[in-house]
Design goal:
2 domains; globular; 36% helix; 4-stranded mixed beta sheet; 11 strands; disulfide bond; 3 helices; glycoprotein; Fibrinogen_a/b/g_C_1; alpha+beta; Fibrinogen_a/b/g_C_dom; 4-stranded antiparallel beta sheet; Gamma Fibrinogen, Chain A, domain 1
């Protein structure tokens, strides 16, 4: 009888241990699934927020004239342009760009003074007000305020540099006013599938 009781207890312990192990596995699976769904929702929210901001900026154009007043806080040209080099007025400021016929319409800043103009600004930092410690989604879609501190977005850079040949100009100035620059030709940004590699041909003196 004592042996039978001991055997029954061992059987119960084994079943209980198995049930606990299965419960732990189920909880782990549920947590993994929940985390994946949460990441997906956050990614979708970031994309929706980006599109909503773009919609508001386009609606804010609000003018019957093609060319708007040349103010730093205004979009200078109502109709989208393919490239900053296509902008005939050669005036620095915000423009609507559409690099390809069926591509995304987005707001960008064209620099028309430095090195002959025709430059699309992809990053601007000067006072540290914008947090650049961001995740993959933010760097893919872009963030900040065009005209202030901003990052244009890797996907837009990929679309822009895939449409035609581009150069890259990097300008740096420290707090004492010392200025340095580097200029590269044949610049291209790869796709998200390739993790957006930057391809530089050679430096221009």
């Amino acid at each position: 009888m004592e042996f039978a009781i001991k055997e029954d207890r061992e059987s119960i312990d084994q079943k209980l241990s198995g049930a606990i192990s299965q419960l732990v596995q189920t909880i782990g699976y549920n947590l993994t699934t929940l985390q994946a769904q949460s990441n997906k929702i956050l990614s979708q929210q970031a994309v929706c927020a980006n599109h909503e901001q773009m919609r508001k900026e386009i609606e804010a154009i609000g003018s019957n004239q093609d060319q708007l007043p040349a103010r730093s806080d205004s979009i200078l040209w109502k109709r989208p342009i393919r490239s900053c080099k296509d902008e005939s007025a050669k005036q620095s400021g915000k423009y609507l760009l559409q690099p390809t016929e069926n591509g995304e319409l987005f707001l960008g800043y064209c620099e028309q003074v430095s090195f002959g103009g025709g430059w699309l600004v992809i990053q601007h930092r000067y006072n540290g007000i914008e947090d650049f410690d961001r995740n993959w989604t933010d760097y893919r879609n872009g963030f900040g305020s065009i005209g202030g501190e901003f990052w244009l977005g890797l996907e837009r850079m990929h679309q822009v540099t895939s449409a035609r040949k581009h150069e890259l100009l990097v300008e740096l100035k420290d707090f004492s006013g010392e200025y340095k620059y580097a200029r590269y030709n044949a610049t291209k940004i790869g796709s998200e599938l390739e993790q957006y590699p930057i391809m530089l041909r050679s430096i221009v003196i």
